[in-house]
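My current task is to audit a protein record that another person submitted. Thanks in advance; the entry in question is below:
***
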Amino acid sequence: MKLDATAIAEAALGLLDEVGLDGLTMRKVAAALNVQAPALYWHVKNKRELLDAMAQAVFVDAVTGVEAPRQGQSWQDWLIALAGRLRGSMLRYRDGAKVLAGTYISDEAMWRTVELTLRMLEDAGFSKADGGRVFPIMLHYTVGFVIEEQSRTSIEYADANPYEPDRLEQVVDPVRYPRTAQLVADLFAGDVDAEFDYGLRVILAGILATRTVPERS
């Protein structure tokens, strides 16, 4: 197997289920590739660059095959589908969202996806300034949501996960805080997919409500 940044990133992602992001080291990645650690530094200079390569692999996997909206598909539904693909790609790996958070991605797939998004939003009547805000907002929401989603089910809690519904019921006093207790019960026992979709639709409704009228030449 050719040793390059892509191969190193794939090996590192393959280790996440076992060691998690905190336990990931260059030495462990090298061992998985059956090479010595110094061999990795020809391709990734440090763990920061390793994380960037891993994030790029996760993102590219999410957007591969994405095309412009089909006829009759709204811009909102297209963006929700795109966010769902990214969420699904992150959920394939333990700490997948933490891998993407704060990382730098420079890849043709990224630029193509952003260009598709901007062109679609301009066609939907957004100004260039308003349209330019949409992709980062959607990306930040999606990554943040999945960080929380994965944290709730973290294997690091073992048998003492505080997010288990039964444990939460013991924490919040339903007599003193009846509304909060109901909220907690509904939130953590509900449909996570529906919760994700609802949050996106609220954000997109706000974006639509606050957009300005584009200037016409």
User: Anything to note?
Assistant: The CA atoms of residues 10 and 193 lie 27 Å apart.
